[in-house]
Amino acid sequence: ESSTTCEVCQGAEEMTEPLKQCTAWLHAYFCEPARIANLPLPAFHHPLLQQDSFTRHVLWTLLRDVKFGEAVSYKQLADLAGNSRAARAVGGAMRSNPIPIIIPCHRVIRSSGQTGNYGGGNIMKEWLLSHEKLQKEKLAY
Prior knowledge:
This protein is an all-alpha fold. It has a domain at 64-134: Orthogonal Bundle (Arc Repressor Mutant, subunit A), CATH 1.10.10. 45% of the residues lie in helices and 3% in strands. This is Methylated-DNA--protein-cysteine methyltransferase.
């Protein structure tokens, strides 16, 4: 458990509304996870998330179906996305994720239970999974 307090960057009054939403969402994720469900998701304008593709479908499925504190295997996510034989393609979609943490690719693990790879590094992936598990346990009390 961290002894540091969460701080929002200075100059928040100069931020655009989408950036304020993103900052509020990330602040809640790290500091007040119980609030996440009540916050709107920041607007997603990345071209990858606008085009009709399997990657987009996988990322939206992950965002919609795998909740805070949960994990899913690449194969399970492929099943959820409608193509049970596309576990490798799910891995490619995770590598292409333009907004990790918000679209929680760290929640996708190997069928063996090992964490697998993560663009931010495996130590970061393990920390994010531990953070969510600890916060979910706290919320259960």
